[in-house]
Amino acid sequence: MNELIRRDFPILDRKIENKPFVYLDNAATSQRPKKVIDAMMKYYVHYNANVHRGVYHLSQEATDAFESVRGKIARFIAVASEREIIFTKGTTESINLVAASYGEANVKEGDVIAVTRMEHHANFVPWQQLAKRKKARFEIIGLTPDLRLDPKEIDRVLALKPKILAISLLSNVTGVVNPIASLATRFKMVGSTIVVDAAQGIAHGEVTIDRLGPVDFLAFSSHKICGPTGVGILWGREALLEKMPPYQFGGNMITHVGDLDSEWNELPHKFEAGTPDIAGVIGLGAAIDYFETLGRVRIEEYEHKITSYVLQKIKDIACVKLLGPREALHRAPIFSVAIDGVHAHDLATFLDMQGISVRAGHHCAHPLMFAMKCPATCRASFSFYNTLEEADLFVNALKESQKFFAKKPKSPENGGVKV
Ligand code: C6P
Questions:
Q1: Catalytic-labelled residue, pool 319, 364, 374, 378
Q2: Nearest in space to 385 (alpha carbons), one of 79, 131, 38, 25
């Protein structure tokens, strides 16, 4: 798939420590193809103006380019109404919007709000804090030993008939893919509103609302799918969005301001207060075009190949503990590893010396990491532009790291210098 594709990403030609740059931190943020960078540059150079405000040519050009991206996103996730697509700053803001607006208006004392143990803080803390404010019950669906959702835990929480189920499509720590469609169907039957965090999921497959089942809200970020940072999407069912109060107040979200009260703009503008990241949204449009040209099914198939390959190779390395299931079936190419006696940051630094960029730490997932009594892992996350050769470089570097860290530091007794 990727020799030609890699040429679209100028940054992949870089060298680190005089070695080829191997970027395996795609779960943190993806790289941008030249087309995305060019689209943003074109806006700034040729038609930079604010949107929705001016009657002059440039402002209308900017507004048309900006609004056309709404349509692209609606088609990307297969929804009919552009009124359901809201631009935010990222997944974090999208989820906070739902918790603050829908949550404040609908959750009452004694209601149950459910999340899972594998959530990123962005899909955990807003619900935890809403539950605290509302004196609601906060329930966490537990995991199996291989860090998938535990069916018994799902039944337990389902029986509580949660008002809200907030769940990620794909874990940023383990790469586990959750069966959203079947869960959504079951939780809908007990009356739950279902919020899906697709920050990771959106990058690894064909995420469309019809495939996700009866979900109500979907949140994702532009920067995980080769678009710029600072832009996110919230999709919500129109009937729910219509009834929700605004999240922030200011320009664009208003139709009339009186001395004592104001009237809100129609959807989606009601939730888009202030000047948006216009260049960012235009860049996201170019990223969507790029993804569509490559084909999301093709991307998924190729990434599945990488996942199987890495799982097979890692299996043979003694001392490397891999978090999550060993089968590629319900997994994306995200691998969190720990090596006994080696701190994750030291391992990540060792890999960086080989030109390999990975993330080390708790990955903004304290509830999962603390439950596993694992303060930090080293995470390699692949994208469609990564190659099997890069997978080999990563696996070989893991093997080398064992030799490197096994070496005893020199002491005066074995030839070292006394300080
Ligand atoms: N995870 C990672 O390295 P923002 O920052 O708003 O674009 O996305 C937040 C977020 C929400 N949910 C999941 C599952 C995520 O993985 C992320 C972002 C990055 O894992 C940065 S912490």
A1: 364
A2: 25
